Amino acid sequence: MNLNPIQLFDTESSTFTYILTGPGSNQAVIIDPVDHHWERDLRHLERLGLQLVYVLETHAHADHVTSAGKLRELTGAQAAVPSGCGIAPAELQLNDGDVIRFGDGEEIKVLHTPGHTAGSMSYIWRGNAFTGDTLLIDGCGRTDFQSGSSDALYDSVSAKLFSLPQETRMWPGHDYKGQAVSTIGWEKRHNVRLANRSREDFCKLMSELNLPKPKLIDVAVPANQNLGLPHGA
């Protein structure tokens, strides 16, 4: 059974937020919420009669501030974050192979997929993969800052994500071209940066991107390491 998440979008940072819920329970999980959409996200939960139990982060983002701390305060949910991202206030520090359980037997499997950042995680639930900034539709996250590594990203995608069932739906952390969802099989065959590309070619390609520094990085990363709350809060 392939159950779709609720997918929400922030136009400013092109960030996707996801709400997951399964049959038989009103418990829900949210992935990568954005600070100025916390009211929108709460309205979705309220409208659907859902109780938020976990707020998940795929990594400490550099392009937007999370609302994880705010949502945790308002709902009583627990924050669950990659252990390698320095997000100390979170209740759960996740490691590769962990399983997050909620609702009526729902399970989210945790995959450590470093490369965009050293701590980056992907989450697998009901035939869906939430890949954060590790794997994007026809692309991937940058690897030139915040403990990034092209070598590590190549391994994360080729050895871990591309080995998932080919029909797995792939839900990215961002999209800049109006796309919403792909499949692992399509990305394995067609992804312009990674499909049928050697490690050497991939690392060379990534080293030559020369992307500008994210505008919010100096604000966003420290804020996100405190779940988006003011330091001292």
UniProtKB/TrEMBL annotation:
SUPFAM superfamilies assigned: Metallo-hydrolase/oxidoreductase
Identify the residues that the record assigns to the Metallo-beta-lactamase domain, covering every copy: 14-174
Q: Which SMART domains match?
A: Lactamase_B
Which keywords annotate this record? Metal-binding
What protein name is recorded for this chain? Answer: MBL fold metallo-hydrolase
